Structure formats: structure tokens, C-alpha cells
């Protein structure tokens, strides 16, 4: 079957290790099922994998991709939940220290077929397209948990840093649709305008002083925006962090501000199966849909990943096998 996979790893030139070509059909262990992939979305995670972050040479070749929507062998339209628990784990999925995402230990979703644990399927609602559904399991689920589980209740003022990213653009659209007052920052004027179209109430340049302090900041940019995130919070406010695209060692950690203003720093990673199911319902009930930057054939995976690497995309890149 056709697949986009890591044949080699390179921290400096991640796309050099990418191959789009033939791979054997997936093996299906007991308790797992096969899904015919109709759409798969790209994430920054795929670039991290090609750089060798979270993926070692001993696991190559590895089919990339965390996100998929497709059809199971009984003909049901499904989303694939990407968090794979370790054998015997029964607690909260995202707290399993040995959990993995598809494409870390088990072959990923950028392929015609993917094998997943039977319990990792969520029904796709008919009103959501395969392309839209493929955006939900990683970026949208991460944004949903950051905002609605770890952030604060509707009505809060939420600052989203770096609007162009998949998680950030999802957080803006979801927040606006579910009753949050959303403010956002971006380095780029065009992206700031698009954030307004997505539902942000106000937009700012990175580091710009805000008209008032906010209840919650959603961080995925990391070092480049960390100091501003903490300065932007009201006393007792919460910064929820799920990523650090620009680096994870900020020059100003703002430790004094954290204790003196009694700020809460809340890490957040992916979400569980129940939260993915809730997210599908939120889409059904609000009508909000993932913003898709472009849909490409799987054979053009390299072009999609290159656009992601150059930071050119706004919303999600979706591949169709
Ligand atoms: N923990 C989890 O479960 C989880 C899940 C998904 C993603 N993540 C992580 O979250 C991060 C975001 O991923 P993503 O795919 O949504 O987006 P992304 O492509 O990594 O981009 C995020 C945004 O960061 C801003 N940015 C990048 N470099 C910057 C810099 N040097 N200075 C200022 N801003 C910068 C850009 O916004 P502007 O151009 O608009 O300024 C960009 O659109 C990644 O690190 C990813 O690994 C974590």
C-alpha cells in the first residue's frame, strides 16, 4: 500500500528522511482492527518524528501520521484516537507513562490502511466530512482539552499565542463557538486578520501589551512567547502549555511572577477517548468545523510537510490516499 514514512532521521533536514512509497499492509494484532484511511491530517509531530524526536533509528521504517478518519471493516465511518495505551493500563490514557501516539511505536496513519486497538475508534458523525474528522484527533483534541478541561469555563478571556498553528487555530475557532472571549497573537498581519475571521475578538502582535489581563493563556509557541504569556495573566490566572515550537528554554522563566501573582502553569497533552467523543458532539452542536489550509493527495505528503516546516499553513493540511 502507499504510505508516507520515515526511512531516516535528520535533526537539520527532516524532509531528507521522508519516503512516499510502498509499505506492507498492516499486521493486525488480536484486539486491533483495520481502518481504510479516507483522510489523514499532518501535525508538527510528523516533523518532530523525522527529526528523531520521539522516534529512534531502531523503529524505522515508520509510517508517519497521528490523525485519521476512515471506514472500519464493518463499513462504519470512524475517527481514529491516536493515544495507544501500554498493555494492562486502565487509568487515564494520557497519564500512562508508557503511552504512545500512532507513528511512535505503531505504524501511523499516512497510508491507505492503519491498524489500531478496537477501543480506539470513535463514530464519525455524518455531518462531518472525512477531511474535517481527520483534523480532530490531535490538534483539535489538544485544543479542546487545553481550553475546556484545563483552561477555564466559558465566559473567560483567553489569549491564544501564535494563531497560525493547528492547535492555536483550533482553539480560536472552538473558543469562539463555545462562549469564550478569544484574543490572539501572531507575528503576521495577514494571520491576525484571519484569526479575526475565525472568531477572535481582538488580535495583537507578539509581546504587545493587552488592554487588560486575561484569565487563561493557551501556549504552544514556547520560548518566544512564554514571558508575554505570564505577563498577560491576571493574578491567579492559568497558562496552559501543550507545545514549544520555538524552543522549550525561555530566557525569562518569570519565576517570581508565577509565585507572586499565584499563577497556575498547567501542562496539557492530547486528550482521552471520551474527550474526543465529546469534541465530535461539540462540532455537531455548534456547527464549528476545522479550518483546512489545503487537501493534498497522499503522494504529495512531502509538499504538505514542507509547507508545515516553512510555517506557511493556516489551519490543517489534510492528505487523502
Ligand atoms: N502536547 C500535545 O498533545 C500536542 C498536540 C499537538 C501539538 N503539540 C505541539 O504544539 C506545538 C504547536 O503545533 P502546531 O502543529 O499546532 O503548530 P506549529 O506549526 O508548530 O506552529 C505554531 C505557531 O507558533 C508560532 N511560532 C512558531 N515559531 C515561532 C517563533 N519563533 N516566534 C514566535 N512564534 C512562533 C507561529 O504562529 P504565528 O506565525 O501566527 O506567529 C505558528 O503558527 C508543536 O510544538 C507541537 O509539537 C502538542
Structure description:
This protein is of the alpha/beta class. Helices cover 27% and strands 27% of the residues. The protein has nine helices and 18 strands. Strands 3, 5, 6, 9, 10, 17 and 18 form a seven-stranded mixed beta sheet that branches. The protein has a six-stranded parallel beta sheet with strand order 13-12-11-14-15-16, with helices on both faces. Helix 3 packs across helix 4 and helix 3 crosses helix 8 (273-286). The longest helix is centred in the middle third of the chain and has 14 residues, at 136-149. The protein is globular. The mean pLDDT is 97. The structure holds NADP nicotinamide-adenine-dinucleotide phosphate. Residues 43-45, 48, 138-139, 142, 162-168, 186-188, 191, 206, 220-221, 224-225, 242-246, 269-270, 308, 311 line the site of NADP nicotinamide-adenine-dinucleotide phosphate. NADP nicotinamide-adenine-dinucleotide phosphate binds at residues 43-45, 48, 138-139, 142, 162-168, 186-188, 191, 206, 220-221, 224-225, 242-246, 269-270, 308, 311.
